[in-house]
Amino acid sequence: MNRETTGGDAPLGLKAGAIGFVDALVIGLNSTSPAYSLAAVIGPVVALVGVHAPGVILASFVPMLLIAAAFFYLNKADQDCGTTFSWVTRAMGPWAGWLGGWAVTMTGVLVVGSLADVAVSFGLLTIGLDSWAENDMIRQGMSVLLILVMTAICVIGTEASVRVQNVLVITQVACLLVFAAVSLYRVYRGTTSLDSLRPAANWLNPLGSGGAALTGGLLLCVFIYWGWESAVNLTEEAEDSATTPGKAGVWSTIVLLLTYVSVAFAVVAYAGTSFLTNNAGEEERLFALLAEHVMGGWDWLVLLAVAISALASTQTTIIPASRTVLSMARRQALPSYFAGIHPRFRTPHTSTWWVAAVAIIWYLVVNQISVNALFDSLTALSLLISFYYALTGIACVIYYRRKLTESIRNFLLIGLGPLTGSVLLAWLLFESIADMSDPKNSSLGTSWFGLGPPLVIGIAITITGVATMLLCRLASATYWAERPAVAEIESVSL
What we know:
Blueprint (H helix, E strand, L loop, with lengths): L20 H11 L2 H16 L3 H25 L6 H9 L1 H33 L3 H5 L1 H21 L1 H32 L21 H11 L8 H4 L10 H35 L7 H10 L4 H17 L1 H13 L18 H21 L1 H9 L1 H19 L8 H29 L16 H23 L19
Helix pairs in contact: 1-8, 1-11, 1-13, 2-9, 2-11, 2-13, 3-9, 3-11, 3-17, 3-18, 4-5, 4-17, 5-7, 5-13, 5-14, 5-15, 5-17, 5-19, 7-13, 7-15, 8-11, 8-13, 12-13, 14-15, 15-16, 16-19, 17-18
C-alpha cells in the first residue's frame, strides 16, 4: 500500500523498513505523553474515587487493550498507514471510513498546540524562567516555533524522529521512576510533608468507590492511553509491517498500564487524598506542586519529565494525522495534492506541514478566546477518540466475521474482545456527551447555544467533516465507488 507519486511518472512510497519493534514501541509510548497525561488526570480522579485511583486506571486499560487487539489483526490484513480510515473503508464502506479518517486527523489538530504549550511552559519552569512561562506572547511564540521544529524533524525522516523519541522516552521514564521511588521511600520512612498513606492492595479495586464515581473516573482515565496507535500508523515504514506495528501497539498499552499504576500508587501514597483533591483544578501543574514536597531542590526532575513528555507527544501526535491524510489523498478521498511524498526523505511532507499549519492556527485562534477555551477544545477530544476507536473495533468484527467460528481464539480475540471494547467506548462516548451538554462542566463555565463549549466544538467538527466529505464526493467519485470486503477463510493467516 505504499505506492505514491510526487508529481512525476515514477511511483514513490514511504521508506520501508525504517523502524523496528523497539522504535515503534517508543513512538507508541511517547504519543500518549505519559507524564503529562497522568499529571493532568490524577487530581480529578482522586477527587472522584479517592485511593482507588490506581484501580480506575487499571479498569480504563481494558477497552484500550481490546481495541489494540483490533488494530493488531486489522493491520495483519491491511498494512496501510491510514489505519482506521483504510480498515473501516475495507470493512464498512467509504462513508464510515472517511468519517473515521476525519476523526483521527482532527485529534491531531486539536491537541498539538496544547502539547507544545505545556512543553514550553514546563521547560521554562524547569530552568527558572517562570515569568516567561506566564507571558502569553512569549509562551505562544515559542510554542509555535516548537511545532515547526518538531514538524521539520518528522519531515526529515522517520529514522530522525525515532532517534529523538528514544532519547526523550528514556529521560521521561527515568524522571518518573525516580519521582515514584523517592515518594514511596519517604512514605515508608515517615518523612513526608503531607498526609501520606501506606499503599494497600485494595487500591486496585475500581469498584471500591461506587458506580457513579467509577463512571466519572473512567471518563477521565480511559483517554490517558490514547495515542499508542501511532506505532501502527508507521506500518508502511516498519520492518515486518504485518506484525511489528500491531505488536508494538499492544505492548505500549501494557507498558503504559504498569507506568501509570506505579506512579499513581506513589502519588496517592505520598500526597494523600486531601492534597490531590484540593489541587485537582491545577491539572498538569499538580506535579509541579507535588514535586516541591517530594523532591525538594530536585523538583526540576519532575518538571523536566512533564516538559519532555509533552515535547515528545508534540512530534508523535503529528504522525497519525499526517499519515491518515496521506492515505485518504492517495485513494482520492481527499485532493491528491495532499499525497505528496518528499523525494529525498520519503516522508509525507505535504500532509505533515498542513497538519502542523492547521494545528497552529487552531491553537492561536482558540487562545484568543481564553486559555479555558483551549482546555475545552481538548475535552472535545474524548468524543473523537472514542468514536474512531469504537469504529475500528466494530470494523474488525465485521471484516473477520467469517473467521470468528474457526476457533475459540479467533472468537475471543478478533470478535468478542474488539466488540466489547467498542461497546465500552460507545458507552463512554454517550456518557461524555451527556456530561459535556452541561455548561457547568466546562472550563469556560459558560453556555454556547445552550450547551457546554466542548460539546459545541465536537458538533462543529462533525458538521465540518460531513460538509467536507460531501464536497470531496462531488469532486471525485473514485474512492466512493469502493465496496466493503470480508476476510475469506483462506485469505488471511492469523
